[in-house]
Amino acid sequence: MFDFDLKISGGMLIDGTGSPRRQADVGVKDGRVVAIGDGLGTARQTLDAQGLVVAPGFVDIHTHYDAQVLWDSELTVSPWHGVTTAVLGNCGFGVAPTRPEHRDLILRTLERVEGMSLSALEEGLGSPWPFQTFTQYMDLLERTPLGINVAVMVGHTPVRLWVMGDEATTRAATAAEVAQMRALVREAMEVGAVGFATSVSKVHVGYSGRPVPSRLADFEEMLELARAVGESGHGLIHYNVGREPLWQAYEQLHAVSGRPVVWTSLLAGSLGPGSHRAQLEQAAQQRLRGLPIHGQGACRPIQFEFDFRSPVVFDTWASFESVRLADNEAQRRAVYSDPDFRARLKRQVAGRGPDDAWFAGKEAEGDTRRASFREMVVSGAEDSSLLERKLVDLAQERQVDPVDLMLDLALASNLQMRWRIALLNFDESEVSEILADPHVVLGLGDGGAHMSQLCDACHPTYLLGHWVRERGALSLEEAVRRLTSHPADVFGLHDRGRVALGLPADLVVFDPDRVDAGPLERVYDLPAGQDRLISRAIGIEAVFVNGQRLGSQPQAAGRLLRQRSNASD
Question: Which residues does 81 contact at the CB level (< 8 Å), separation at least 6?
Answer without folding.
Answer: 58, 457, 458, 459, 460, 461, 517, 535, 537, 540
